[in-house]
Amino acid sequence: MKFIMKHKKNKNTKEYLDAMGMCKLILKQRTMYPMKRIEYAIDYVKDKLIDQNGVIKIIDEESYETLLKEGAIFLLGIGQEQLKEILIKNNLLYWAAGRNKTQLKKKFNKGWNLSSFLTFRIFLLFEICIGLRQEGANQMRLPRGSTFKQVYEKGVKELQVQLTTYWDFITTEEFKYKCPDLLDDWSCNVVNRLMNLKSTLSNSYNEMSLVVGHEGHCIYLSLCKKFDFILVRVDNRWMNTVPSNTPHPKNGALIQPYLVAYFKSNGLDIDKNKEWLKEYIKNATILKDGDINESMMHLYCSGNNNPREGNALLIVKDWPYRPIQKDAENCYMRSHNFGYRIRLGNVVYQWFRNQESKSFVFNKTNYNSIINEEKTKYNGSENRVKGGNTLNISNATIQISSKQLKVEYEEIYNGMAMAQTLVAKAKIHTIQNEAFYSRDESVNQIYFELYLNLTERAQFRQFYQYKFPRLIQIIKEIDQKLVRFYFDTYVFDFQLIPSFSSLF
């Protein structure tokens, strides 16, 4: 990808064409996450925990945690320190979101910090699979009527789905802005992967799940192969975002996932349907960061051109009804839970969720007291400057920034110095003479409008998502020169601002 960006200005050069050809070939060869890699990582940890006679080795807690992390980073492609940081920083967020607590100021909500959430969930699932792999050597109580082998196989299969979602998300985020010409190859590969999934004749599902939605709201697009059907399902529980003409199945305050399209995998119109699905996936990927109305009209096929062939009612009737969301809070998890529950079945799904809470990552914190403390901090920080100029932000923050940046208060207030510092911290040197920032009171966010080209936007986003994972909540493209970044105010005030002193 770096080579493509280097030669992007002249797309007719041999270097650029060769690099594009290589990327297209790599995308064409993508598969579901390899099961052999998953089994290798699990066996690596298991063999360090149990000797050849099946006896558990004596190992201290710290060594056990290190082993789990070593296995997980092999699957996730990140460093052990990065994984450790994600587990430490996000354990409260995951715990609270799992109980639908939304009063936390520090949160994933209303944003696109999907990689941290998926990393955390995958790690928990990996830890559970390690426990199941030690059949007979642990004290796990399984769901009634289940064997270790049955539950383990379901867990490993789900781990494969979630790892595929994780790597698909990383892949699209990498090339979507830098090289959108690859989107056709990407969506074609997804359709081919779906068609190559094995058909199931039981209650199990063979599927993959893509991250879609719109600016500020996370939805998952699940592509399933069951019996001889191809099913396209939208996993979303926020009904206010659904187009009004959508015949969405509801039961009072409960909602089912929405079946967008279905057709036979060996039907007469299979080529036509595959082409429709390819375009549908491509545009859903493009619109993920876009306007709510355009994205949702597309996802729910308000144009009525979606294929619906045969009778899939016997499959859909078993999908769960879950409480309707009234807003986007915890959408990254609640939307994901739809597919998680469908793939495992209600009983096994609930068992896995209960096992999550037993992980070592949750053992060292009094969560209720922290939530109360966070709530107090949050309520106490509401005394902000309102009205006035472009900037509505706390005077305390401005004064701290003025002192740390060694510039006058007014230069901070009009946004220029702050914007220039932000881009400089990300090793970008574009002058921000006309940039500004303001506060959106409706969502308690600060937004910056910065002058950055496409390459600089990607660099800016990647830098701050790595350094301050919960800082960037929304990205809105204004035009080719101007982009708007929405920041979480808590992370901005108490993490980012104090870090500015390191620049001077």
Strand numbers in spatial order across the main sheet: 1-2-3-6
**Count of helices?**
19
Helix percent reads: 40-55%
* Helix and strand pattern: HHHHHHHHEEEEEEHHHEHHHHHHEEHEEH
Count the E strands.
Answer: 11
Radius of gyration based on Cα positions = 24 Å
Coarse shape: globular
Strand content: 5-15%
Please indicate the count of domains: 4
- Outline the biggest β-sheet: 4 strands, antiparallel
Structural class: alpha+beta
Rounded mean pLDDT score: 81
Which ranges are low-confidence, i.e. pLDDT below 50, for 5 or more consecutive residues?
107-112, 380-414
The rounded distance between the terminal residues' Cα atoms is 33 Å
Q: How would you portray this structure in words?
A:
The protein has 504 residues and is of the alpha+beta class. It folds into 4 domains: 1-25, no CATH class; 31-175 and 345-377, no CATH class; 180-329, no CATH class; 395-503, Gyrase A, domain 2 (2-Layer Sandwich). Helices cover 50% and strands 13% of the residues. The chain has a 4-stranded antiparallel β-sheet with strand order 1-2-3-6. 36% of the residues are buried. Residues 107-112 and 380-414 have low confidence and may be disordered.
